[in-house]
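Figure 6 in text form: structure in, sequence out.
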């Protein structure tokens, strides 16, 4: 007998003897009466199956035991004996995700005229694979199903199922608590050369488990001057199992077009209302590590003063530069240039840092700002990249309308207490 190729909930019509009155036979009438007076096996008609479970939930990706109570209603002639049987149980998500080969069987005698019910209690062991497979299919619950029939298989049968929820500290649906983006160089702002290889990294904190449905998207310079239009560059569907953190890498980002680009990871599922951070990168003609096409103009820094102590309220400011379309504030680790001469900390005549090494080492953090802004404070996200009791060097560069660097400030020291 093949089980659960579908859900066989249709009734099976019982084969009954032809009415003896139609036989016109006295002997047949006597035999029929005798059959009604004697106990008969296998003439049950199942009219309903009610089911309950305790507990009605399991912990994700952990084995569990659930007590399931089946109440099977039947129709029989008074004082008739029969046996109700279910050969196996099955765990169902969108499809079958597990089985239970244990047979349930119970014999009983109908006491009321025509109807009765019997209760079968089953201890069900739920393997960890069942909740894992259900959640992998995007489900926060699954069903346990059985089909009941009388013992000889010719009476009508019915199926019943109970829903079991996936709960627990690592169970339930997928829920995101944090989404942070950065570039593969660990920067949160980036200036890239034309056609340079560039990718973004997404770090996600989450609870539960389930399917992550997201899209990496990029807005190119044709729309970033106004309302950005994001275009998908890769669809991401990934099952996140029990855990707290996952790191995802974007496909190569487009760097063929000069100008300002935005990149983000837009999440469709789960719909947690989490904010989608946006990274900015500027594609320039200047090749990182190469020599600029011409000597750069000098941007004068205003504050903080050289050697100042950094605090969350510290405001960086500089003089505006004609022809600038955007400014990038960069903060570098002070050890990037072992061959670079340390600046004179005199406030009257600060010395300009020669910075050949800066073309090879990305900034620790920074901000990309439109040309209308000539001052900025570091955001909380940017400040996370600064370590205590460390020296840093900061500068500002100006980006022209064609995407090339047109001016740069000196490197100036700042200390994080």
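Output sequence:
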């Amino acid at each position: 007998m093949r089980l659960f190729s579908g859900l066989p909930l249709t009734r099976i019509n019982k084969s009954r003897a032809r009415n003896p009155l139609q036989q016109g036979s006295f002997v047949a009438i006597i035999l029929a009466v005798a059959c009604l007076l004697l106990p008969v096996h296998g003439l049950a008609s199942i009219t309903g199956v009610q089911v309950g479970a305790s507990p009605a939930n399991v912990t994700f990706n952990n084995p569990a035991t659930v007590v399931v109570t089946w109440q099977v209603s039947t129709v029989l002639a008074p004082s008739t004996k029969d046996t109700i049987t279910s050969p196996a149980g099955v765990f169902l998500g969108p499809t079958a995700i597990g089985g239970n080969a244990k047979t349930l069987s119970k014999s009983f005698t109908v006491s009321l005229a025509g109807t009765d019910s019997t209760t079968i209690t089953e201890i069900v062991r739920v393997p960890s694979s069942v909740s894992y497979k259900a959640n992998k299919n995007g489900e926060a619950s699954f069903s346990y199903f059985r089909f009941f029939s009388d013992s000889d298989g010719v009476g009508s049968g019915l199926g019943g199922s109970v829903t079991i929820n996936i709960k627990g500290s690592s169970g339930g649906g997928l829920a995101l608590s944090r989404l942070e983006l950065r570039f593969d160089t660990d920067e949160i702002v980036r200036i890239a050369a034309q056609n340079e290889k560039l990718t973004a990294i997404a770090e996600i904190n989450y609870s539960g488990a389930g399917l992550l449905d997201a899209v990496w998207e990029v807005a190119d310079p044709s729309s970033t001057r106004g309302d950005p239009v994001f275009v998908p560059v890769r669809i991401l569907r990934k099952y996140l199992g029990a855990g707290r953190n996952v790191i995802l890498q974007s496909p190569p980002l487009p760097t063929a077009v000069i100008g300002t680009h935005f990149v983000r990871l837009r999440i469709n599922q789960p719909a947690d209302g989490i904010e989608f951070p946006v990274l900015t990168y500027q594609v320039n003609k200047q090749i990182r590590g190469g020599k600029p096409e011409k000597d750069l103009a000098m941007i004068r820094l205003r504050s903080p003063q050289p050697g100042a102590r950094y605090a969350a309220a510290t405001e960086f400011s500089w003089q505006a530069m004609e022809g600038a379309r955007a400014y990038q504030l960069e903060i570098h680790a002070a050890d990037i240039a072992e061959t670079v001469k340390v600046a004179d900390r005199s406030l009257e005549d600060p010395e300009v840092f020669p910075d050949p090494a800066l073309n090879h080492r990305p900034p620790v953090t920074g901000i990309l700002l439109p040309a209308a802004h000539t001052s900025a404070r570091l955001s909380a996200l940017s400040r996370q990249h600064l370590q205590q009791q460390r020296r840093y060097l900061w500068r500002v560069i100006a980006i022209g309308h064609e995407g090339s660097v047109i001016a740069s400030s000196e490197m100036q020291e700042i200390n994080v207490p």
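Caption detail: DSSP finds three helices and 28 strands in the chain.
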